[in-house]
Amino acid sequence: MKALEGVKILDFTHVQSGPTCTQLLGFFGADVIKVERPGVGDATRKQLVDVEGADSLYFTMLNHNKRSLTLNTKTESGKQVLERLVKECDVMVENFAPGALDRMGFTWERIQELNPKMILASVKGFGPGPYEDCKVYENIAQCAGGSASTTGFRDGPPLVTGAQIGDSGTGLHLALGIVTALYHREKSGRGQKVLAPMQDGVLNLSRVKLRDQQRLQAGPLKEYSQYGEGIEFGEATPRAGNDSGGGQPGRILKCLGWENDPDSYTYFITQAAVWENICDVIGKPEWKEHEDFKTPAARLPRLNQVFSTIEEWTMTKTKYEVMDICNPLNIPVGPILSMKELAEEPSLRETGTIVEVDHPERGKYLTVGCPVKLSDSPVNVERSPLLGEHTDEVLSDVLGYSAAEVAAMREEGAV
Ligand code: COA
Predict the structure, then answer these.
(1) Is 333 in the pocket of ligand 1 (CB under 6 A)?
(2) Which atom of ligand 1 sits closest to the CA of residue 38?
(3) Does the residue 163 lie in any domain?
(4) Which domain holds residue 43?
(5) pLDDT digits (tens, 9 = 90+) for 15-29
(6) Looking at the DSSP assignment, which residues form a beta bridge with residue 296?
(7) Residue 221 lies in a domain
(8) Does pTM surpass 0.85?
C-alpha cells in the first residue's frame, strides 16, 4: 500500500510548477487525473520537441504516474464532468493565470458547495498584493523572490540559477501544503484553500540572504570575499560569487584538466574543525600556528590567499582525487558534476533517483525519480500518459458514465 493510495487528485496543472507537485503526489501513490484541453493538452507536450511527433521530454519528465483525461471545460457537458470530478476527488490542484478558474465558473465558493471536503491547491506567481494578477514564469519568480539579485559575481549582472527553484521549488512547497491540509481534514472534516506563490517559495529558499540583509546593519559581512578585498558593502545583500552561504568559508576551485573540461572543479570548504588537516593536505603545515591563519577570524580577511593556495593543490588532482583524499580526513569537498556524469552514475540508478522509462512514442529516456524515499512506500515510476489516454477509463470507472454518454460527449467536442 502506497502512502497516498486512495487519494484522488484532480490535476488541473500545466507547464512546470503544478505538474511537479502532482507528480510527487503520484509517486507517493495518489491517483492523479490530469485534465487537459481536447486536441491541445498541456502546452509543454509540444515544446522543446526532440523527437518529431512525440511528447517532449519537458512534458514526459514532469508528468509521470498520472492519467490523462481530455475535457473542454468551456462546454456544458465539460462543465458537468468537471463538477462530478470535484465531487469525487479529494484535492484539486491548479496553476492557471489568476482568475482563470473563476472565469470557468469554479470559484472557491462553488467548489465548497459541490464538495466541502475538497482541498483547492494553487500556484500563483504572487500572493495578494500589487502583483497578484500577473502571469509568472520560472525566471520571473527567481528575480522577484530575491534569488537573482543575490546570485552571480559582485561585478556582474544578476543571474538566474539552473535549478528550477521558482517552478519545481514552488511545486514542492505546494505538495507540502496539500498533505498538511489532508492531515488537517482528518481532524476538521473540511477542505481548505492552499496557496503557494512562486515569489514566496523563492524567498523561502533565499532565506539566508534576508538574514545577511539584516546582518549588514551590524557591519560588513566578513565571510564574503569582498570583505577581504576591501570593497565596501552597499545597502543590500550583494552577490557573492561562489562564496559559501554559511559560517564555514568555501569556494569553487579548479582541478586537474580544468583547461579542457568545463566541469573540472571542486567545491572546497575550509571547515574550522579540520583546518589542521587542510594545512597538511595542501602542504602548508606552518599555517597551523601562524597568527594570520590559525583561527577562522584571522583567515577571514585573507580568504583569497587561503583559497588560491588551496587551489594550487587542487589543480594537481582530479575532482575525484580531491574527494578521495579529503573525505577520509573529514574535509568537506564536492565535485562539480555534469548532467552527463549524473546520468551515468550507477548509485543514482540503484536508488531510483535516475530512472530509465520506456515510452510508446519516443522509446527509452531518463528521468529523475522521486527525490524523497519513504521506507514503506516504494515508488514505481510510470511513463507519462498520452493526451487523453485515460479519458474513457476515468469517465466510466471514476464517474460512472456509459459508453454511449462518452461517445456523445466526444461528438460534441467536450472530451
Ligand atoms: N478546457 C477549456 N479551457 C481551458 C482548459 C480546459 N481543459 N484548461 C485551460 N483552459 C483555459 C483557461 O480557462 C484559460 O482561459 P481564459 O483565460 O479564457 O479564462 C486559458 O485556458 C489559459 O490559461 P492560462 O493559465 O492563462 O494559460 P497561459 O498559457 O496564458 O499562461 C502561465 C501560462 C503559466 C503564465 C499562467 O498559467 C500562470 O501565470 N500561472 C500561475 C503561475 C505559474 O504556475 N507559473 C509557472 C508555470 S511553470
Answers:
(1) no
(2) 7
(3) yes
(4) 8-205+344-412
(5) 999 999 999 999 999
(6) none
(7) no
(8) yes
